[in-house]
Amino acid sequence: MTKPRRNYSSCPKMKEACRLYKEGTIRDLSHLSRTFGVDRKALTQRVKDYISLEAHQGQQVYLSTGTEREISGCLQVLSQWGWGFTRSELSDLVQEYVVANNLDTPFTQGRPGRKWFDRFMRDHTELSVRKSEQFSETRAIATNETAILDHWFNEVLKKTLDDAQLHNKPENIYNVDETGFITDPTSEMVLARKGLKNVYQKTGGSGKEQITVCVTSNAAGYSLPPFTVYKAKHIYSSWCVGGLESARYAVSQHGWMERPLFEDYFRNLFLPESVKYSDSNFPRILIFDGHSSHISLKMAEMAEENNVKLLRLPSNLTHLLQPLDKAVFGDVKRQWRKKLRCHARVSRDKIRKEDFPAKLREVLEASLKSENIKSGFKSSGIFPWNPERVKDQTKNAYTPTVEKSVNVQQQVQLTGSPSNTSASECQVSGVLPTNGMDSTSQIVLSVETIPGSNVLNITNVQVTIPKDITPTVEEHISEDATSVARDWESHTELYWLHGTKPSMWAD
Question: Residue 78: exposed, middle, or buried by beta-carbon count in 10 A (0-12, 13-18, 19+)?
């Protein structure tokens, strides 16, 4: 006859035995089992937190009670910082946690299913499933005043600043953002006859390679060393030489910032480097975009242990709320384009990984200016805390453009025999990224040929820029347009060297 299983979920003797063991009164499990008449194995599972005290006999053990308690605590903290997870995203986080800690579970490939999720939510009543506030894909709705002010500025940012007493501590408020650097000049504007459909330019590789760089700055205007991610399987020491001091380097399959790498960045770069610029008597805040690949349970634990608050920017609103995007990366990309143009004059090959750290160092030293960083935090309303700054920008979003003429007169003499028999004019157009904005400015160069010569004149440079931008941004756009016009010769040489004849400019 099979011995019936006992249900200990509401057994007072089991609870008393567990209490005595955890208090240290009696540490002999066999003695407790005999004294209270409970199964020794069932008692061991409960006092070691493998299962909860209220678990019924025969209930399958997925994760220990202690582990699930840690997960629940991390989720509660993350929700306070603006992070919400779907069931699928939570399963991904738990899978990563199980694999990283080599836990023995009945999960398929370490990923929990619906049954575990249902029981987890039933056991942890401090959590609840709520419908998240969704932002529309269209930016007009995404910039809804109520959504921005209530969800981000009031419920997340202000509450965190108040609790951490950081309204007067800009050195403790950080923003991290990643940007890509192409290593060949194919994205540069080249000159072509108006209406020509296909323009080709020879490069040293097949396709564009992009290197990801994470930049971190605080509201006081200081920047941490960069974190660079190469697209490769293995990293070589020669790829890590010549950069800024304390900069870190890593590789990934696609060259993107993936979750393990972001965890590496947080542990080995942000935590030790940000201490140098922050007030250790107050918490630090790290603000970044809301992609789920940027957060893990382990990272949440490290943040709590080191008194760091991880604030999530709402999806589709980074163009308004990301300080580095608004005022820093425009200048960074402008400096990098100059590097690409200089490189293209001496080599048709793309920039090697061995040379990238040194070139990146020069670019960051020239472009990471304290006043620009402070301006980014100010214009995003983060520091000083001022939701009205973003509110004003939403009113001016997608305003009409205005045309501006840039006074540049530039002449270029082409190599080769004169082929122009009469005067003619054409226009060459391209785009200029607008500093701190998602939109771009259109540039049109009016070009005049001189009869019987191989000379081309730029007679006018017209730029169409977004209206109501700041004077500083407008000045940067004008500088870019001037640079393109005055760098006409290098662009022209790139074009003529690859098969285009000057005769195409003739009537």
Answer: buried
**Beta carbons within 10 angstroms of residue 178's beta carbon:** 21
| 77 — pLDDT class (breaks 50, 70, 90) | confident
How many CB atoms are closer than 10 A to CB 305? 9
Q: What is the chain's percent helix, strand, coil content, to nearest 5? A: 45, 15, 40
How does pLDDT run across 399-442, given as a tens digit for each residue? Answer: 455 666 666 555 555 544 444 444 555 565 555 655 444 456 66
Q: How far apart are CA 437 and CA 148, in angstroms?
A: 18
327 backbone dihedrals φ, ψ, rounded to 5°:
-135, -5
β-pairing, 284-289 vs 410-413, is unpaired
Distances (CA, A) of 62 to 70, 281, 284: 14, 40, 35
pTM over 0.70: no
Report yes or no: 210 and 228 within 8 Å, Cβ to Cβ: no
Tokens of 442: 């259109």
**Alpha-helix runs per DSSP H in 430-487:** 471-486
Amino acid at site 326: K
Q: Are the C-beta atoms of residues 456 and 449 closer than 8 Å to each other?
A: yes
Query: Which of 215, 203, 237 is CA-nearest to residue 498?
Result: 203
Helix axes 65-80, 87-100, angle to 10 degrees: 130
Q: How far are the Cα atoms of 17, 214, 390 from residue 383, in angstroms, in the given order?
A: 55, 21, 12
According to the model, what pLDDT value does residue 7 have?
54
Q: How far apart are CA 279 and CA 65, in angstroms?
A: 37
